[in-house]
């Protein structure tokens, strides 16, 4: 063997020996192994929390379930975390409506499914507002809901005043007094206007006015639902949080990686926006511009909740005698059923405008839940305006921040079951602007032939709105699916409802449809 080959061989042996020695000397101790393992687990946990691991980054595991209950909202959001799935319940209600067809009889079984899915453990419960079609499930399934636990309960800012008779902002006491008075006048009438007005009053109070003449004798209806929300799930108010636009929400610790932005309702210093319920037809909402405008001077609430126009009316008549507008209003109200119906609508719309509007963000995905927010609630966060306008085109362009929110959302919960006055035309346009084919999913929990009149352009859901939204996104309507119940068998889709979109990530259960991101 030549000296050169011998040197190479020696060098190879020496190098191998050195590597072997180095490998041996760098072998971690038992304590070091535990440290490495602990750091690895911590790194993975932080990655999941921040949404930087592969699964969370793509939103895998994030799901939105819409239960089919009829005319009502009942949504479950599943949030994947390092500690397993955590759950957010957003509303649980149903209401029969004007025609009596709104409650399809599935809500109790849906609550049972909710309990099985969550094991009765909810990280967060959100009550958008106190209408029966959003909270009736809590009293209809009272016994089961008393087995649930919740880490937190969120409600709209104005809700904390609703039951306080001594509060300057109190509404519920006045609403119930007005509702009882109006109900006495509507009961027994068979015309559509009276039936719809009575249904609105029942939705606002949870009281079946056809079944009682003296009001509820014990806790029932919406009052019972609110008791479960505030005192049972909310631990006598200790776990309840009230929020308005701009508030920094406190999220339960177990909802790792989730953030939330409160967009509505308007706060105390923007109270004027709470008074605007409808937008100009054909300009701000999906009604024919030729439809007749409804109006009334009846004012069912205190002055701070009423748009007054005293300056626009003469204080004396042609003979210089003072005019008592209060007496005039009361006289007209007694004489005209349409005025009574308008008062009932004001009660209904005002509670809708209290809706808590929440934008959730998780692993790059954005989910917008708007409850039944109406004109003023929307305009407060869409525009840079000091006061609302029934014609939103006069407010200029939607502000950049709001445009960015609408252009980039991945999920939209359609407001007020597809009603014409709950998703402004300008919002639909912003939802589709600049997406370049990158669409979003919208879910609408609704039931046809419950409210409104197609001949007047007031049907719910409103067809032009559904067509406009469906042209910009994958619109999933609850009434497009058949569901299977134990008590009532198979409940078929609504008559004439378009077929649902075919989505790879959309799963249909016996009582719900669920979308996975």
Fill in the keyword field for this structure.
16% strand; alpha/beta; 517 residues
Structural overview:
- The structure is a single chain.
- This protein is of the alpha/beta class.
- The protein contains 16 helices and 16 strands.
- The strands form three sheets. Strands 6-5-4-3-2-1-16-15 form an eight-stranded mixed sheet. A six-stranded mixed sheet has the order 7-8-9-10-11-12. A two-stranded antiparallel ribbon has the order 13-14.
- A hairpin with a 6-residue loop joins strand 1 and strand 2.
- Helix 8 packs antiparallel against helix 12 and helix 14 crosses helix 15.
- The chain is globular, with a radius of gyration of 28 Å.
- The N terminus is likely disordered.
Short description:
By secondary structure, the chain is α/β, with parallel strands linked by helices. It is built from 16 helices and 16 strands. Helix 14 (400-408) crosses helix 15.
Topology:
Layout: H1 3-25, H2 30-50, H3 54-57, E1 63-67, E2 74-81, E3 84-92, H4 107-118, E4 121-126, H5 132-140, H6 142-145, E5 149-156, H7 159-162, H8 172-186, H9 192-205, H10 221-233, E6 240-243, E7 258-264, H11 325-335, H12 337-353, E8 357-362, E9 365-369, H13 375-382, H14 400-408, E10 411-413, H15 425-432, E11 441-444, H16 463-470, E12 474-477, E13 483-485, E14 489-491, E15 506-508, E16 512-516
Parallel strand pairs: 3-4, 4-5, 5-6, 9-10, 10-11, 11-12
Antiparallel strand pairs: 1-2, 1-16, 2-3, 7-8, 8-9, 13-14, 15-16
């Amino acid at each position: 063997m030549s000296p050169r080959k011998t040197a190479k061989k020696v060098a190879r042996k020496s190098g191998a020996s050195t590597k072997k020695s180095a490998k041996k000397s760098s072998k971690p101790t038992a304590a070091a192994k535990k440290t490495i393992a602990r750091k690895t687990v911590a790194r993975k946990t932080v990655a999941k929390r921040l949404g930087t691991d592969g699964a969370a980054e793509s939103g895998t595991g994030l799901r939105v379930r819409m239960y089919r209950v009829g005319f009502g909202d009942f949504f479950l959001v599943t949030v994947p975390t390092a500690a397993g799935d955590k759950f957010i319940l957003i509303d649980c209600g149903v209401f029969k409506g004007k025609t009596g067809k709104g409650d399809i009889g599935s809500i109790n079984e849906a609550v049972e499914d909710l309990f099985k899915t969550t094991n009765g453990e909810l990280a967060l419960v959100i009550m958008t507002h106190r209408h029966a079609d959003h909270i009736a499930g809590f009293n209809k399934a009272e016994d089961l809901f008393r087995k649930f636990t919740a880490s937190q309960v969120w409600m709209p800012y104005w809700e904390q005043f609703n039951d306080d008779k001594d509060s300057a902002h109190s509404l519920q006491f006045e609403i119930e007094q007005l509702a009882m008075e109006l109900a006495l006048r509507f009961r027994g009438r068979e015309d559509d206007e009276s039936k719809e007005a009575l249904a609105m009053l029942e939705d606002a109070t949870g009281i079946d006015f056809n079944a009682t003449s003296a009001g509820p004798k014990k806790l029932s209806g919406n009052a019972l639902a609110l008791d479960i929300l505030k005192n049972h799930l909310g631990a006598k108010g200790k776990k309840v949080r009230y929020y308005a636009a701009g508030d920094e929400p406190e999220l339960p610790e177990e909802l790792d990686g989730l953030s939330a932005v409160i967009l509505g309702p308007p706060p105390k210093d923007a109270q004027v926006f709470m008074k605007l319920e409808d937008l100009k037809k054909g300009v701000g909402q999906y009604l024919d511009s030729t439809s007749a405008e409804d109006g009334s001077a009846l004012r069912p609430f205190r002055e701070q909740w009423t748009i007054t126009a005293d300056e626009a009316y003469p204080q004396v008549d042609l003979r210089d005698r003072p005019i008592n507008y209060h007496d005039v209003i009361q006289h007209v109200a007694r004489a005209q059923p349409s005025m009574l119906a308008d008062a009932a609508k004001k009660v209904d719309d005002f509670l809708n405008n209290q809706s808590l509007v929440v934008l959730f963000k998780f692993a790059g995905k954005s989910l917008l839940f708007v409850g039944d927010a109406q004109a003023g609630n929307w305009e407060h966060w869409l525009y840079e305006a000091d006061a609302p306008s029934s014609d939103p085109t006069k407010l200029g362009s939607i502000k950049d921040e709001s445009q960015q929110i609408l252009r980039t959302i991945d999920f939209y919960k359609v407001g007020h079951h597809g009603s014409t006055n709950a998703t402004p035309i300008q919002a639909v346009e912003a939802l589709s602007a600049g997406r370049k084919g990158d669409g979003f999913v919208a879910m609408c929990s609704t039931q046809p032939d419950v409210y409104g009149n197609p001949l007047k352009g007031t049907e719910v859901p409103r067809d032009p709105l559904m067509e406009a939204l469906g042209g910009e996104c994958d619109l999933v309507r609850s009434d497009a699916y058949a569901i299977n119940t134990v008590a009532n068998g198979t409940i078929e889709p609504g008559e004439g409802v378009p077929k649902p979109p075919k989505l790879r990530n959309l799963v249909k259960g016996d009582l719900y449809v669920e979308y996975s991101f």
